[in-house]
Design brief:
163 residues, mainly beta, 8-stranded antiparallel beta barrel, 1 helix, 57% strand
């Protein structure tokens, strides 16, 4: 993991830990929103470090937050198997831990050559997000599935274009 990304991740977690002490857990009230976020892909820290997987997963994606607890997302990225993937999904994050949003994303991916011959497949991933003004980070856990999909902690930096 490069030093800048590691620093950003540690700063986010330290900020969240400090804020979580004051307000440890909450339920977010659903309110309408209209925010457009964009991202340059992902960074994936794979659990199987000896497989020669590509941790850097550049691409382009968008997230439209239509509620304080929900958003839709879609994008395209260079995956860990060095192939192109597309994704689409819905985030649902009704819980908070300090400034962190907690929940899951349900959606679909394609482009993984060893899974469904590169075709689309469903996914349900736990997600933690933190946002501050015009910058945010989504953290997700991708489970390993046999020798077809590689488990990882993904980090997605995002930037707010519109609110």
């Amino acid at each position: 993991m490069n030093h800048a990304l590691r620093g950003a991740m540690l700063a986010s977690l330290a900020f969240a830990a400090q804020a979580a002490h004051a307000n440890p857990f909450g339920v977010i009230e659903s309110q309408p929103r209209s925010e457009l976020w964009v991202n340059p892909g992902f960074y994936s820290y794979h659990f199987d470090r000896d497989k020669g997987l590509d941790d850097t997963n550049p691409g382009i994606g968008a997230e439209y937050r239509f509620s304080t607890v929900a958003s839709v997302t879609a994008g395209r990225f260079h995956n860990s198997d060095r192939a192109m993937s597309n994704y689409a999904g819905i985030y649902y994050q009704p819980f908070s831990l300090g400034p962190l949003r907690l929940g899951a994303v349900i959606g679909a991916f394609d482009g993984y050559p060893k899974h469904k011959d590169g075709g689309w497949f469903p996914a349900l991933l736990p997600v933690v997000s933190v946002e501050y003004e015009r910058v945010g980070v989504n953290f997700a856990i991708v489970p390993k599935y046999k020798d077809r999909l590689h488990g990882a902690l993904t980090i997605q930096l995002k930037f707010k274009l519109m609110d």
